[in-house]
Amino acid sequence: QVQLVESGGGLVQAGGSLRLSCTASERTENRYRMGWFRQAPGKEREFVAGITWRSGFRTTYADSVKGRFTISRGNAENTVYLQMNSLKPEDTAVYYCAAGLSSVRYEFWGQGTQVTVSS
To answer: Rounded to an integer, what is the distance from CA 15 to the centroid of its chain?
Structure first.
């Protein structure tokens, strides 16, 4: 099974930017859907952004991050990025990378990386 490792989290002021990276133990394109999720303290995990190359290239975003976050694939075909701009304090959460073989759920998860946005 694929293993996922996130990096790039940290502390940033409101309005700033961060880029998260997700490195998979194998190539992901054409086999896995990839996604980013986040979980804030006391809240449920929520979808942030997704990317797939199956049946055509497509990205999706949560309404709360549209226009500010961009999900993309790196030149290395086992890396996915989440570029986060115009960060807000409400973006503070642990961010998780996920991979899905099926079309209805994500089966594999990374350990998470903390993003903290100060006001």
So the answer is: 19
